[in-house]
């Protein structure tokens, strides 16, 4: 995905500059009731297709995407849908179809100009929070093609105070619906399990193959893959594990001040390590001027004999203020709450989060699952300042079990 290094957190200045430039070219009086300019009549059909994609290996793919519209009855909607599909591949910075001067013919030639991303790109990000410590992420991408079939090779890795790992993947974008791409790859990951009597880690290594789906409007995404891996753990089950994983939800925004991105996911695991997991989360929000409010809910549960890194925790993903990552882990959790935010000038935001939750069958100090449940809540008030390189956040949090702490978070979330 795009990071703050190559796309601004707040694109408003760029949008305003574009609007100002467009109004300057149109001239005064257009919005004041002036007669609109006459436009040429739509063609009945489109003639010969020309594709201009200088230096891009994806020129045959673009040609295959639009070739079927030549000679057919002109209808802009499927052309625009195909345009969205090309953007959904993540391989293009811009695609611009245009009808050229027809010179009086009924079947004018048309041109599709495409600008693909660099064949080889490197991106990275770094951050810090006093929960997981320092964190770093980096990725390398290579875009190529075999005939009219695009190939996207990704190599990425990340590390923080709790998790570290890497992955390599091959993605093949398609023009069908669905999926928008086929993918396969391999990965390795190590996760520390905090709040146990002894230090414990869960290590995973394996691969996957499946299909991805992405829609621009509305911004929705999904995936269905089959995973196979070997799990080793200092505490808990270990051995081979395999099965399907599915997820569908909205595309997460670059900046998520309040609430959470709605999604549903689940997986089934067979083999020596057998378990099932499901999660459902979402929020309802409203924005009025500089004020934003969201009511959220998050449900997650595992069944069977899961490794400890698959068990949900109230502290994961900063769900409950005052808790640390991995704290209050169990076989099921439920969280609800209210987030409020007020935006100030110079890209500053004041945010209040009030959340509560329950964990079922919490883990004990030796890493085994117990019985019963634990209820708790927390509130946090922090100030955020948005910079081109991510956020700067600082404030305080307190919980119903007596926790008090100062929080500091720097950089993008990942």
How is the topology of this model organized?
Layout: H1 12-26, E1 49-52, H2 59-66, H3 76-88, E2 92-99, E3 110-116, E4 120-129, E5 133-146, E6 149-159, E7 163-173, E8 181-192, E9 201-215, E10 220-233, E11 239-250, E12 263-271, E13 275-288, E14 291-304, E15 330-344, E16 348-362, E17 373-387, E18 390-399, E19 404-410
Parallel strand pairs: 1-3
Antiparallel strand pairs: 2-3, 4-5, 4-19, 5-6, 6-7, 7-8, 8-9, 9-10, 10-11, 11-12, 12-13, 13-14, 14-15, 15-16, 16-17, 17-18, 18-19
What does this structure look like?
With 414 residues, the chain is mainly β. It is 9% helix and 52% strand. The chain has helices at 12-26, 59-66, 76-88, and strands at residues 49-52, 92-99, 110-116, 120-129, 133-146, 149-159, 163-173, 181-192, 201-215, 220-233, 239-250, 263-271, 275-288, 291-304, 330-344, 348-362, 373-387, 390-399, 404-410. The strands form two sheets. A 16-stranded antiparallel barrel has the order 4-5-6-7-8-9-10-11-12-13-14-15-16-17-18-19. Strands 1-3-2 form a three-stranded mixed sheet, with helices on one face. A hairpin with a 2-residue loop joins strand 13 and strand 14 (291-304). It is globular, with a radius of gyration of 25 Å. It starts with 11 loop residues before the first helix and ends with a strand. The model is unreliable at 1-9 (pLDDT under 50).
């Amino acid at each position: 995905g795009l990071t703050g290094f190559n796309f601004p957190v707040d694109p408003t200045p760029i949008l305003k500059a574009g609007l100002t430039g467009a109004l300057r070219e149109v001239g005064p009086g257009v919005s004041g009731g002036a007669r609109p300019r006459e436009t040429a009549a739509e063609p009945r059909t489109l003639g010969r297709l020309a594709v201009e994609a200088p230096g891009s290996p994806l020129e045959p793919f673009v040609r295959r995407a639009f070739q079927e519209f030549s000679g057919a009855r002109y209808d802009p909607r499927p052309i625009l849908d195909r345009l969205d599909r090309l953007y959904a591949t993540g391989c293009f910075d811009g695609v611009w179809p245009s009808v050229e001067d027809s010179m009086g013919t009924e079947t004018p030639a048309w041109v599709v100009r495409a600008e693909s991303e660099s064949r080889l790109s490197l991106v990275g990000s770094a951050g810090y929070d006093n929960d997981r410590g320092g964190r770093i992420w980096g990725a390398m991408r290579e875009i190529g093609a075999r005939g009219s079939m695009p190939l996207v090779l990704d190599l990425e890795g990340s590390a923080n105070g709790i998790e570290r790992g890497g992955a390599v993947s091959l993605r093949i974008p398609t023009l069908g619906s669905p999926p928008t791409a086929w993918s396969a790859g391999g990965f390795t990951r190590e996760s520390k399990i905090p709040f146990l009597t002894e230090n414990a880690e869960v290590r995973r290594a394996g691969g996957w193959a499946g299909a991805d789906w992405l829609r621009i409007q509305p911004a929705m995404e999904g995936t269905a893959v089959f995973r196979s891996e070997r799990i080793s753990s200092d505490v808990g089950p270990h051995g081979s594990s395999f099965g399907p994983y599915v997820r569908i939800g909205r595309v997460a925004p670059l900046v998520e001040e309040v609430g959470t991105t709605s999604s549903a996911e689940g997986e089934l695991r067979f083999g020596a390590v057998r378990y099932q997991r499901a999660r459902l989360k979402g929020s309802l929000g409203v924005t009025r001027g500089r004020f934003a409010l969201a009511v959220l809910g998050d449900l997650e549960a595992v069944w069977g004999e899961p490794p400890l890194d698959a068990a949900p925790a109230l502290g994961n993903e900063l769900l409950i203020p005052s808790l640390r990552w991995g704290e209050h882990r169990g076989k099921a959790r439920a969280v609800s709450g209210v987030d409020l935010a007020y935006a100030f000038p110079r890209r500053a935001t004041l945010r209040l989060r009030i959340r509560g939750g329950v964990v079922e069958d919490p883990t004990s100090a030796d890493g085994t699952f117990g019985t019963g449940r634990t209820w708790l809540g927390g509130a946090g008030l922090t100030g955020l300042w948005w910079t081109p390189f991510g956020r700067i956040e600082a404030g305080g949090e307190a919980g119903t079990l007596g926790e008090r702490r100062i929080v500091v978070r720097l950089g993008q979330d990942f």
